[in-house]
Every structure is written in C-alpha cells, then in structure tokens.
Design a protein that fits this description.
The chain has 334 residues and is of the alpha/beta class. It is built from eleven helices and 14 strands. Helix 1 (39-54) crosses helix 10 and helix 7 packs across helix 8.
Length: 334
C-alpha cells in the first residue's frame, strides 16, 4: 500500500496546505475489520455517502485496523463488497492505518516539540487504585493533572521507549456544532484528562490515528455513529494542537435492539451478508435505511443513488432507531 496522500500536511512546520471550506466536501467511511457490516454500520455509511454525493464531494474509504488481536482476515474485503452491493462507491482508498505509522510518529514528534506530550509509566492498575481510594476521585475521574511531569529533559522524545505517551489537554470547554445534535460542549479536562496517544506496548491510539488521517486526507466532513460523540472534544483539541482546522461533524443516532442495546457485529442475523442471503434486494434495504434515517416518508424499495437528491441534514432523525421486532428486517424480502 502506497503511503501517498492527496493533501500535504507539514507537521513540523505546522503548515496546513488544504482548503477546509465546504466548497469541496471530503467525507470518509472508516470501518474496523473486526466483523461483518450490520445494518447500523450500513445506516451510518449510507448517511456519510449521501451527504458527500449530494454535495458533489469526494468519498474516502479508510481501514482502521490498529488493534491486531481484533482484526479478522477477510473482513475488510467483505465490508467493501457488502456496501458496494448496497449501492455505495468511493473515490479514494482503501487507506490502511496499520501501514501509516510514520505519519503518526511524525505527529507525536510535533506535539512533543510543542510541549503537548509527556511520558507516563503508570499502569491502569495504578490509576484504578488511585481513583478507587477512600475519599479520592471517583472511578470516572480524569487523569490527575498532578501526574504531569514538572520538566522534561531535552530530547526525551527520541530516547523514550518504555512509557505510554499522553496528550496534555487544555482547561476549559470545547464547543462545536453537530449537524444532527446541534450545539455541543465538551470538557476534556474534567471528563478524561490527559489521554493516551501511544500505548506502552507501542500501539497508536484511535484518537491520534483518526485525527492524523483526517488531516492528511483533507477530510472536512466527519459523519459517524453517535457512540463517538464524546470523542469529538478530544479530537478537536488534538487537531488544533497539530495546527489543523476541525471538520464539520455529524453523529448518526444508533440502531438498537428491542432491549435498547446497540447492535454489534455479533448480531449475525442483521449483517448485510446474512440479509443478502435471505433474498433481500439492495434496493429494499437502501429504501428501508433511507426511511429509518428520515430521508423517505415510508419504507419502500429505492436504489441508494436515488436517495442522493432527497438527502437533507434537517431531515435526519435525532432519535435512536429501535428495532422492536427483528423480523421487520425480513419483511423486506420479495
């Protein structure tokens, strides 16, 4: 896989050479190859694709595979095949995160030089013990600011090899407008604190990889599931620390089962692959997903391409979509 990227981002100089206006939207879909795509994943992917296509923008496919034990061989190819069957296409990619370590390391070096990165040798067990101590912080307390080092020796970043690397967050609120949920405010200092960007075992954190890739790929519109809404404030701080401009965000309400639990890749009966095998057509499923998003007034077969001119963000439902009867999916069969 070639590590070439279509937009230049010079980390050490802090120069961003891409246009972050929405005159040319660049969106993405970034699945993890840990299982088959289910209807909740497909619903989010469809919303991201419809938004970009309705604005005549560019759609990027990225593979987020930084957690090797969870990666299942063949799932990356299966995801592309299933969403292509649904009617989605993409203009660039797939870009593979596990092949992009040089970019993540360069970003860490920039943050270290700016004084926004520090080493941490405390284990999860240590932090849990402190959080659980009598009269101490609650178990959900952020990383204690008292653990920040008072000073770091020059050149520490090039010499460190036995510590996690944490991002030094700033105090105060982070504010942004979400296209679905409206005005949002997050307090990273109060909820998470200084968070890990590279684990002690050398694995890069999701928060770092997603931010670096979005910057390098010129992504200026991020559409993803509502379960990632609380990551946004962290990512905005990190983007700004790297000299970038945050994208426009839209978080799609989740699909949940009758018990109110969000769908997972263990729900094999609701994967696109299993629905295809029951005889459901791509037009029927695309229409059902469009209706569940609020793009169509009723569930009826509709090719994904025909949903594009109908897409409006103000029509997207803000409520979690509950599948009270799993069998309703199978009513789509001819």
């Amino acid at each position: 896989m070639d590590l070439w990227v279509p937009y230049s981002y010079v980390f050490l100089a802090g120069e961003v050479t891409l246009d972050h206006t929405m005159s040319h939207p660049r969106g993405r879909y970034a699945p993890s190859p840990t299982g088959l795509i289910h209807v909740g994943n497909a619903r989010t992917a469809l919303a991201a694709w419809l938004s970009v296509r309705s604005q005549e923008g560019t759609f990027v496919w990225r593979l987020e595979d930084l957690d090797p034990p969870r990666v299942i061989p063949g799932m990356a190819e299966a995801a592309m095949e299933d969403l292509a069957w649904l009617g989605l296409d993409w203009d660039e990619g797939p870009y593979v995160q596990s092949e992009r370590s040089a970019f993540y390391e360069e970003a860490l070096a920039k943050l270290a030089a700016a004084g926004r990165l520090f080493p941490c040798r405390r284990s999860r067990k240590d932090l849990h013990a402190i959080a659980s101590a009598p009269h101490g912080p609650e178990s959900t307390a952020p990383y204690p600011a008292a653990f920040r080092p008072e000073r770091l020796d020059p050149g520490w970043f090039e010499q460190i090899s036995d510590a996690a690397l944490r991002f030094l967050v700033h105090d105060g609120p982070v504010e942004w407008i979400d296209r679905v949920y409206g005005s949002q405010t997050g307090r990273v200092d109060q909820t998470v604190g200084d968070f890990v960007l590279k684990r002690r075992d050398g694995l890069y954190a999701y928060q770092l990889a997603v931010v670096v890739d979005d910057l390098l790929m010129g992504i200026n519109e991020v559409v993803r599931g509502a379960d990632l809404l609380d990551s946004t404030a962290r990512q905005i701080q990190l983007i700004e620390a790297l000299g970038g401009v945050p994208p426009v965000y839209a978080h799609i309400p989740l699909v949940v089962n009758a018990q109110g639990e969000k769908l997972s890749k263990r729900d094999e009966g609701l994967t696109l692959r299993s629905l295809r095998e029951t005889g459901i057509s791509s037009e029927a499923l695309a229409g059902w997903l469009g209706w569940s998003l609020g793009i169509l007034d009723r569930a009826e077969p509709c090719p994904a391409a025909e949903l594009v001119p109908l897409f409006r963000w103000e029509r997207v439902r803000k409520e979690t979509w509950r599948l009270t009867d799993i069998n309703e999916m199978f009513m789509l069969r001819p």
